[in-house]
Amino acid sequence: MGTVEERLGEMREAFRSGKTKCEKWRRSQLMALLALVREEEEGIFSALNRDLGKHRAEAFRDEVGVLIKSINFALSSLKQWMAPKSVKVPLVSFPSSATVVPEPLGVVLLFSSWNFPIGLALEPIIGAFSAGNVVALKPSELAPSSAEFLAEAIPRYLDGAAVKVFLGGPSVGSQLLEQRWDKILFTGSPRVGRVVMAAAAEHLTPVILELGGKCPAIVDSIGSSEQKVAAKRLVAGKWGPCCGQACVGIDYILVERQFASTLIDMLRRTVKSLYGDSRNLSRIVNRQHFMRLEGLLKDPSVSASVVHGGRFDSDNLKIEPTILLDPPLDSEIMTEEVFGPLLPIITLEKIGDSIAFVRDRPKPLAIYVFSNDEALKKRVVAETSSGSVTFNDTMIQFAVDTLPFGGVGGSGFGRYHGKFSFDAFSHEKAVMRRQFLLDFPLRYPPWNETKLRFLRDVFHFDYFGLLLVMMGLKK
Amino acid sequence: MDGDGERKGEFDGKAAAELVGELRQSFWNGKTRSYDWRTDQLRSLARMLVEKEKDIIDALHEDLGKPEMESFIHEISLAKDGCARTLKELKSWMKPQKVSTSITTFPSSAEIVSEPLGVVLVISAWNYPFLLSLEPVVGAIAAGNAVVLKPSEIAPATSSLLKRLLPGYVDSSSIRVVEGGVPETTALLDQKWDKIIYTGNSKVGRIVMAAAAKHLTPVVLELGGKCPVVVDSKVDLDVATKRIAVGKWGCNNGQACISPDYIITEREFAPKLIEAMKSTLEIFYGKDPMASKDLSRIVNSNHFKRISKLLDSDKVSEKIVHGGQRDEQALKISPTLLLDVPQDSLIMTEEIFGPLLPIITVDDIHQSFDIINSRPKPLAAYLFTKDKKLEEKFVRGVSAGGMSINETVLHITNPGLPFGGVGESGMGAYHGKFSFDTFSHKKAVLRRSFGGEAPARYPPYTPKKSRLLKALVNGDIIGIILALIGWPRA
């Protein structure tokens, strides 16, 4: 295997060789990645089942399917992304041309999280390879089967000198962070995000931090047929992705007091119909998180607010979909990211109060709003801040290649997906080209009043005045 | 009444926290978000640049001995241009950007909405103390943020001018200036900002980023580096030397992050280059450059000593082929050329940031690329050549923040080009729309209707749903239709 330094040395050498720069290499890697995801589907499903009890359909929908879509998008866009972009040149700089040339940053480090351990490991690689970088991947040790799968499958499909998987826990992570990288993309908790950024600061390494937050779903009063659809989307948006253990999953719901019971009824019915069979739900990743979630209900005023569910199966690390109605706002379940299958519902006098409620809290990765009220929707966009806002659906913004995926404030900074992935791992180099012809002596010292006047005209874009001076008709 | 920074040394953590709190309140009240507020501020700043031109030029002269022309071209005009251009384009920049959506989310509509980040900290540098303060502030305001500006204490006249002038032109509830040195900057860096932009050296850049890490604050670091100039033998030597000279000594006497730091040229060509450069220098600055009014002085005695040290190294002083005069009293060093100093000497490992220009020779001009690539990536790299092939190799093979071919420095005046570094020379970029973007959060907004339901998304998971999902994911219309009508597909 080699030490971290040795393997990093190989990667640097691979980058220096220049092979990642050509489109052919990048395309071949993307195709190989596509082959990996398609051919190793069963292996991926097994790993996800072992790590999280994830149903194959969920695994396909949230991880494999998303990857296939993203790789195809990158393949069809690669040429365009790689092309230098011409930029307009102000007449003042005539004659010259200006372009922005994207170039790879070099050797990038990716930290992926445990909840979408295949998807969140491979999606950044799509961007990194498209942009011509070499990659070190540190998958989360909390999803060990997936990590091992990646360590075994990646060298079989991809260029082994250009991508290396580093298995291990925090100590391996620390060793990696001691090195100098050209970029780091980290998906995980704010606590570790701080550690990553502080380590990156030593080497002036730019970072992207994909963190989390408490993503609210604001549910307005809507027609009854729409309620059915909304309920499905809400339930699927809470418990569908890794049983609530998702950074863009719904954390809590805001609803007007008068509609709370209708909503709860609908949610309960929908939960029964979608997740009556618990095999359709992922399990909690490990005992530590299981106990953390149990702990959220310890407070008697919180457990008293449970209106559905609440059963914990500690042998199988499964928690049934649990709904709470108005737990105290200062309880841990309402101050910390839940990241599990507990869904607090907070009632408000009027739905408009949800704006202030959300604004008073750290900026989340996503805000969901179910409403037909255009004024409310406008207010949410204008008066709240979040990574994204999705109206009348949940989770799906993650799959839109043309939308940036990233946080703001406490939910992180930087973004990727689609072209944003390519950009995330590129340096946009400004290039200006001039000829030797047509030089203006008035640009140079020694300075005098004439030259000063000339330059005043130039900067006022007073081309006529400029012309006169150049022709010697204006002094 | 604003008490921050008025009594030096009294701007501590408490004062910093109060300041940020005030500005955050102002931001939350929505003051800075309207188009009108933003354009009002920008118009006032533009007015200030006209009304106070003389004060600005005087302050720059006091701080740096900067010739009036340089102050006018580099600081005032570029700042004016920035304001004017921003005013012209702001409305369109503020518009949400519609993006296309695919069949996977049909029916839906999506857009990217720009919103301000909140309260931004601008830490400026001493060499273009006015421009490097104003330009980022203009960008932050354009994006709708509240701003605190911390000008460099090494340019004290400009710093106090900014402190004095700004309240008379812009809205003090949302835009403030804090003067001071390390203690004040530290107090500011301890606070939680929504973005920090720092212009300066990489040592302090690391400190800024480490402080930002505590609050998960994104940063833009505009640092420096040794900007190389590769001079091929196929050039118009007269024009080349003029453009190199004006980018070197015409930019604050070499004290600029994008100034040519050193030249690489072919051994055989070097004597011609040196002769041409000498004669250009004489045209620009006369026979006695120490008496020329067209050169900035060295900013202070610390930097004078630092630059002197570069010259005084063994094996370096004997390589001087032109210039080398020094006047510590007047803080002047004459334009100095050196030939083939050792590559491991201090003058070739540290950023010079002064009027010394080492020339390194190689046998073949193509070797210059390896020399550049073996060093940290600079903020700018320059090439002079008529050879198109060499030009392409350079653009493809050398990494730097930005590049100019057959020119120096000017690429940063094009508002359509991003200005920023890579690697050791920094991260992030600004200027023009890039400023607006860097101080904005680009929020993804997806709108769906209640129709267009895809039951394939939900449990119970059936083989038919799997097929449909696969087809949806592949954007495979035929597959979707077949799956919907229940046709199995391999």
Give an overview in words:
Chain A: InterPro entries: Ald_DH/histidinol_DH (IPR016161), Ald_DH_C (IPR016163), Ald_DH_N (IPR016162), Aldehyde_DH_dom (IPR015590), Aldehyde_DH_NAD(P) (IPR012394). Chain A: It catalyses: an aldehyde + NAD(+) + H2O = a carboxylate + NADH + 2 H(+). Chain A: One of its GO terms (molecular function) is aldehyde dehydrogenase (NAD+) activity. Chain A: Pfam families: Aldedh (PF00171). Chain A: Keywords: NAD, Oxidoreductase. The complex is a heterodimer of chains A (475) and B (490). Chain A is an alpha/beta fold. Chain A folds into 3 domains: 4-211 and 416-428, Aldehyde Dehydrogenase, Chain A, domain 1 (3-Layer(aba) Sandwich), CATH 3.40.605; 216-406, Aldehyde Dehydrogenase, Chain A, domain 2, CATH 3.40.309.10; 443-474, no CATH class. Helices cover 44% and strands 17% of the residues of chain A. In chain A, the strands form 4 sheets. A 7-stranded mixed β-sheet of chain A has the order 10-13-14-9-8-15-16, with helices on both faces. A 6-stranded mixed β-sheet of chain A has the order 5-4-3-6-7-17, with helices on both faces. In chain A, helix 6 (144-157) links the parallel strand 4 and strand 5. In chain A, helix 2 packs antiparallel against helix 5. The model of chain A has no long low-confidence stretch (mean pLDDT 94). Chain B has 490 residues and is α/β, with parallel strands linked by helices. Chain B has 3 domains: 13-223 and 431-442, Aldehyde Dehydrogenase, Chain A, domain 1, CATH 3.40.605; 228-420, Aldehyde Dehydrogenase, Chain A, domain 2 (3-Layer(aba) Sandwich), CATH 3.40.309.10; 456-490, no CATH class. Helix content of chain B is 42%, strand content 17%. A 7-stranded mixed β-sheet of chain B has the order 10-13-14-9-8-15-16, with helices on both faces. Chain B has a 6-stranded mixed β-sheet with strand order 5-4-3-6-7-17, sandwiched between helices. Chain B has a 3-stranded antiparallel β-sheet with strand order 1-2-18. In chain B, helix 8 (202-214) links the parallel strand 6 (195-199) and strand 7 (219-222). The longest helix of chain B has 27 residues, at 68-94. Chain B is globular, with a radius of gyration of 27 Å. At the A-B interface, helix 4, strand 2, helix 8, helix 9 and strand 16 of A face helix 4, strand 2, helix 8, helix 9 and helix 10 of B.
